[in-house]
Design a protein that fits this description.
The complex is a heterodimer of chains A (257) and B (266).
Chain A: E1 3-12, E2 15-25, E3 30-34, H1 41-48, E4 56-61, E5 73-76, H2 88-93, H3 103-116, H4 132-144, E6 150-154, H5 162-178, E7 182-186, H6 190-196, E8 199-203, E9 210-215, H7 229-251
Parallel strand pairs in A: 3-7, 3-8, 5-6, 6-7
Antiparallel strand pairs in A: 1-2, 1-4, 8-9
Helix pairs in contact in A: 3-4, 6-7
Chain B: H1 25-43, H2 55-67, H3 70-102, H4 104-117, H5 126-133, H6 137-161, H7 165-173, H8 178-216, H9 221-230, H10 234-262
Helix pairs in contact in B: 2-10, 3-4, 3-6, 3-8, 3-9, 5-6, 6-8, 7-8, 8-9, 8-10, 9-10
Classes of the chains: A alpha/beta (257), B mainly alpha (266).
Chain lengths: 257, 266
């Protein structure tokens, strides 16, 4: 569903974290939010999904929800946020249990979500038995099982090592091709942004404002082709040029606690 | 680099150690050696039997108590106080403690009271409880219940605090109703802390039952130990102490079983 952010601002006490974010995201579009650390990108994601109350402005959806959607916004969390006492199938099923589906329907949905994320054989495993990459696949399956209108990904690959991250990027691209939610993807990894997003929104340092928006015209599914490599690298360079100075400043800052 | 072989010195190994490894035989050997030493000291007359009876004498006393049924009688009397006292204290403590873990106003109301009353040695309240409830069983059960109540409250609400907030935000993001967040996320997440609290409250219950029985009871292990001491029957006295230690071990073993069963996911 199309998502609209109007003049969204947020303060943590006296500290302004976000200042007047205006953004329209089209149905089925993937938008990456990047920026130096402390620019409020995770705060913005919390506001979009209704986990944080903005100090000002509003977030709205328009148009009809997708078929069989049970929850408009779902999250994929950086630290996976799995329940260690539930196995994979029950962690995914948690998102359905209070939705009044009959047993067969929810089993079908869980099975479909597990199949989509390559977890079918791991339904009975517990989180502690799984690698970080598999845990995040569970997190992704749980987010998809309700067929969300908007999928919110909060640095989903940041806790993973470089090789696992590469595998998960490929998985996400395969999932993007088979599932049509609108997606907001927060990351500090420029490569993830240019490989997975249709548009990259660059936020400035505190207070976060939209500094620039870069559209990547090549469809995500085709970006792995060799002829686009130069374009992607160039895009990463442009993004880095936009945030480098502020990232350096943010990095040298002493936290005020 | 320079000359091969001539100036090569192997890097000395500096790691190792500081890694606890299992030594299954050691505890048994130490245990047996201590008992053996003790028995030898008693047999040689080094330890006066009246002040410190030998291990063999304690075992004989235990066997005698077992045969004539006094052991069972006293243990049963103590258990009839511990079990209801612990259950009442735990039930009330979990109720209040979980409410304090979930509701801010319950915490604001309860925390100062709990903090103020927690440090009182509960045995000091026994005389008051005897005045209110009489010298019989209810005052002893109430002392144990009070002693169990406060640590249970504290462990229950701190266990709620220890549940990662992001798991709760996760539940909210999937639209779980508040009661489901409590039942499916908060309570299971708090369970390790609650069960750890059971160990503390069980040892408090054992301590208080002995103390209460020493103050005013005909039966029970505490009363038995006190009487044996007054009569200078040190073998009986120490037999009672051994029974208490076995009781403590059994309780801790049972709680360990419960933990392994409930917290299998860990």
């Amino acid at each position: 569903m199309p998502l609209h952010l109007e003049k969204v601002s947020h303060n943590y006490g006296p500290v302004a974290a976000l200042d007047g974010i205006d953004l329209d995201i089209a149905d089925g579009e993937t938008v990456a939010l990047i920026g130096p650390s402390g620019c409020g990108k995770s705060t913005l994601l919390g506001i979009i999904g209704g986990l944080l109350q903005p100090s000002a402005g509003r977030v709205s959806l328009s148009g009809p929800p997708p078929a069989e959607s049970l929850n408009p916004f779902t999250y994929v969390f950086q630290d996976f946020a799995l329940l260690p006492w539930r196995n994979v199938a029950d962690n995914v099923g948690l998102a359905l249990e209070h939705r009044g589906l009959d047993h067969g329907q929810s089993r079908e949905r869980v099975a479909a979500a597990l199949a989509l994320t390559g977890l079918a054989e791991f339904a009975g495993a517990y989180p502690k038995q799984l690698s970080g990459g598999m845990r995040q696949r569970v997190g992704i399956a749980r987010a998809l099982v309700v067929r969300p209108a908007v999928l919110l990904l909060d640095e989903p690959l940041s806790a993973l090592d470089a090789q696992t991250r590469e595998l998960l990027i490929e998985d996400l691209l395969a999932i993007w091709a088979r599932e049509s939610s609108t997606r907001v993807y927060v990351t500090h990894n420029l490569e993830e942004a240019v490989r997975l997003a249709d548009r990259v929104v660059v936020l400035s340092r505190r207070p976060g404002r939209i500094r620039d928006i870069l559209a990547i015209d090549v469809p995500v599914a085709e970006r792995a082709r060799p002829q686009h490599t130069t374009m992607l690298v160039d895009m990463q360079r442009r993004l880095w040029a936009l945030i480098r100075d502020e990232a350096a400043t943010a990095e040298r800052e002493i936290a005020d606690v | 680099m320079s000359e091969p072989n001539t100036d090569r010195r192997p890097v000395p190994f500096r790691g190792g150690g500081f890694a606890p490894a299992p030594r299954p035989a050691v505890p048994w050997i130490v245990f047996a050696a201590l008992i053996g030493l003790w028995q030898a000291a008693s047999s040689s007359g080094l330890l006066p039997a009246l002040l410190m009876p030998s291990p063999a004498a304690i075992v004989r006393a235990l066997y005698g108590l077992w045969l004539d049924g006094t052991l069972a009688e006293h243990v049963a009397a103590s258990l009839r106080r511990i079990v209801p006292g612990w259950i009442i204290g735990t039930a009330a403590g979990l109720g209040i403690g979980l409410a304090m873990g979930i509701f801010s106003s319950a915490r604001a109301a309860g925390l100062p009271i709990v903090s103020a009353l927690f440090p009182i040695p509960k045995i000091a309240l026994l005389p008051v409880l005897i005045l209110w409830l009489g010298i019989g069983e209810p005052s002893k059960v109430a002392t144990i219940a009070l002693g169990v109540f406060f640590p249970t409250v504290i462990s229950a609400y701190t266990a709620c605090d220890s549940v990662p907030r992001n798991l709760i935000r996760m539940g909210q993001s999937f639209g779980l109703p508040a009661r489901d967040i409590v039942a499916k996320i908060l309570l299971p997440g708090a369970m390790p802390g609650i069960l750890a609290g059971f160990r503390i409250s069980a040892s408090v219950a054992l301590l208080l039952v002995v103390a209460a029985e020493m103050i005013g009871a005909q039966h029970g292990i505490g009363a038995f130990v006190l009487t044996a001491g007054n009569l200078m029957q040190t073998d009986q006295l120490l037999a009672g102490v051994v029974v208490l230690s076995i009781l403590g071990l059994l309780i801790s073993w049972g709680l360990g079983m419960l933990e392994r069963k409930i917290l299998r996911w860990r």
